[in-house]
Design goal:
The structure holds 2 protein chains of 2 kinds.
Chain A lengths: L2 H28 L9 E3 L1 H9 L23 E3 L14 H34 L2
Antiparallel strand pairs in A: 1-2
Helix pairs in contact in A: 1-2, 1-3
Chain B lengths: L5 H24 L15 E9 L9 E10 L5 E4 L11 E4 L4 H33 L4
Antiparallel strand pairs in B: 1-2, 3-4
Helix pairs in contact in B: 1-2
The chains are: A mainly alpha, B alpha+beta.
C-alpha cells in the first residue's frame, strides 16, 4: 500500500461504509409496508474497526499480510424492534428516519474530511 | 434482478405505493356502487407487496419492494332492505360493496407518508452523490 493510499484509506473506507449503510437504511424505508420484512443495519463502529484493521496489529514488513478487510465484508445485522407489529414487519419508521438522517450527516462529514485530505495532498504536490 | 442502487430501491418502492394509492382511490370511488345482485357488486381491492432482494453474491441487505398482485376482497357485500330503490331485486334488497371508508382513509394517509419517505431518501441520496462527485474540488 503506497503512502497516498494509506493517507486516504481511513476516510475512503468510512465513506463506502456510510454508502452501504445508506443503501440498507433506504431498503428498510422502502419496505416499511411489506409484511414479514426484517429491518437490517450495520454497526458502523465495529464494521469500521474490522475494515480498517485489527486495532494494534501493524504490518512491519512487505511480506506481512495486510490487516483488516474491506467495507464490503461488513456484517449486516437484524434490527430488534421496540414494538413488533402483527404482520411480522420489523421496520419502525421513526427509528429508520433517525438513523438515515444520522448516517447522511456523517456521510457528509466524512466527505468534508476526505476533501480536506485531498486538498492537503494537492497543495503538497504543487509545493506552493 | 441484478444489483440494486438506492435509486432503484426508492423508485420501485414509490411505484408500489402508487399502486396502493390507486387501489385506495378505486375503493373509495366505488363506495356507493349499489347493485341489484350480490354477484355484480364491486369488490374492494388490495395490493400484495413482496420484498425483492438484490441478486448479488452474499446477501448485502439491499432490498426493494414490488407489487406482486392485486387481490379482490372475499368479504360478503352489504345487504340492505330498500324496496323502493330502483336497483332493488325482487325481494327488495340492494347490495353495497363491503368498503370500510375509515380504513381506506387510514391506508391513504399511510401510503402518502411512505411515498414521502421514499422521496426523502431519493433526494438525500442525490444530494450526497452530487457532493461526492465534486469531492476534492
Amino acid at each position: 500500500m503506497n503512502a497516498i493510499d494509506k493517507f486516504l484509506k481511513q476516510d475512503g473506507t468510512a465513506l463506502s461504509l456510510r454508502q452501504k449503510r445508506l443503501d440498507i437504511l433506504g431498503s428498510n424505508i422502502a419496505n416499511a409496508a411489506t409484511p414479514h420484512f426484517k429491518a437490517r443495519d450495520i454497526d458502523f463502529a465495529s464494521a469500521f474497526k474490522s475494515a480498517i484493521g485489527g486495532g494494534d496489529l501493524v504490518t512491519t514488513s512487505a511480506n506481512h499480510i495486510e490487516v483488516g478487510g474491506s467495507a464490503d465484508s461488513a456484517d449486516i445485522k437484524y434490527r430488534v424492534p421496540v414494538s413488533p407489529s402483527l404482520d411480522g414487519n420489523t421496520v419502525e419508521l421513526h427509528v429508520e428516519q433517525l438513523q438515515f438522517a444520522e448516517n447522511a450527516t456523517h456521510y457528509e462529514a466524512t466527505l468534508q474530511f476526505l476533501s480536506g485530505r485531498i486538498q492537503t495532498l494537492k497543495s503538497a504536490l504543487k509545493g506552493e | 434482478m441484478k444489483s440494486l442502487t438506492i435509486f432503484d430501491v426508492a423508485g420501485r418502492a414509490m411505484a408500489a405505493q402508487q399502486v396502493r394509492l390507486n387501489t385506495v382511490a378505486s375503493n373509495l370511488a366505488n363506495v356507493m356502487s349499489i347493485s341489484g345482485s350480490p354477484d355484480n357488486v364491486y369488490k374492494p381491492i388490495k395490493p400484495i407487496f413482496e420484498t425483492q432482494y438484490a441478486n448479488v453474491p452474499g446477501n448485502n441487505g439491499i432490498a426493494t419492494v414490488d407489487t406482486v398482485g392485486i387481490e379482490a376482497s372475499k368479504a360478503d357485500p352489504e345487504k340492505r332492505y330498500e324496496p323502493n330503490h330502483p336497483m332493488a331485486d325482487k325481494d327488495g334488497y340492494i347490495y353495497a360493496p363491503p368498503i370500510d371508508q375509515n380504513a381506506e382513509m387510514v391506508d391513504m394517509l399511510e401510503t402518502s407518508r411512505q411515498y414521502q419517505n421514499n422521496i426523502e431518501v431519493l433526494s438525500t441520496a442525490k444530494t450526497l452523490l452530487l457532493k461526492t462527485i465534486n469531492v476534492g474540488k
